[in-house]
Amino acid sequence: MTEWLLGLVPAYGGWLLAGATFLSCLALPIPASILMLAAGGFAAAGDLTLAGSAGAALAGAVAGDQAGFFAGRVGGSGLLARLGARAAPVGKAVELLARRGGVAVFLSRWLFSALGPYVNVAAGAAGQGWARFTLWGVAGEAVWVAVYVGAGWSVAGNLTAASGMAVDVLGFLAALAVAAGALWWLVAALRAERASDVASPPASR
């Protein structure tokens, strides 16, 4: 199936990418990342445009996220219960969302992408604000699309090299995310300690 879809990339370009990313965000087994790598390569060769390929992939991914979010909003906890009976990632998605909120939406677009579709449903069911969900979701999908389409473009369609580059870039971004989280935690801890010192009365002599 993957080879057949790859053969359709130069002919259908953006429409294929939009459909693939949309369906992948609904947890369907579509090789969206590979198709984005290929589209980047065809863009480097001049058969597609880089901006058009990236824009179509991003539009499809955002639409898929929105579909999952509103499915969760309408179906609520009942939908989560039905999914949970068949999909182990649901529990992890709910836990990640509860601990990290909007950041969980962002990270599940590219770092924990397997949880993305379930985070969408969980966010809708939990009543997370639509604007907050959309903001973090678009930011995360932009990272995903930029990494894969950009990797395919940079190595002119060599899928093996592009895949390795994408993994390296995602690993680097993950390390940056961990470092940023650790820095945020350290700053918050120092502020809390300083506030505690200010609030505590001096010890009597």
- For the termini, the CA-CA separation is 79 Å
Helicity range: over 70%
Please write the string of helix (H) and strand (E) elements: HHHHHHHH
- The structural domain count equals 1
> How much strand content do the residues show?
under 5%
**Overall average pLDDT:** 83
Number of strands: 0
User: Which spans of ≥5 residues are poorly predicted at pLDDT below 50?
Assistant: none
So what's the overall shape?
A: globular
Q: Please summarize the sheet with the most strands.
A: none
Radius of gyration: 20 Å
- Please tally the helical runs, counting DSSP H or I stretches of 4 or more residues: 8
Task: Report the structural category.
Answer: mainly alpha
Q: What would you say about this model in short?
A:
By secondary structure, the chain is an all-alpha fold. Helices cover 82% and strands 0% of the residues.
Write structural notes for this entry.
Helices cover 82% and strands 0% of the residues. The termini are far apart. The chain has one domain (2-198). Helix 7 runs antiparallel to helix 8 (159-199). The chain is mainly α and 205 residues long.
Please name the defining characteristics of this protein:
205 residues, mainly alpha, 8 helices
SSE layout:
Elements: H1 2-24, H2 32-45, H3 50-84, H4 89-100, H5 102-110, H6 116-125, H7 130-154, H8 159-199
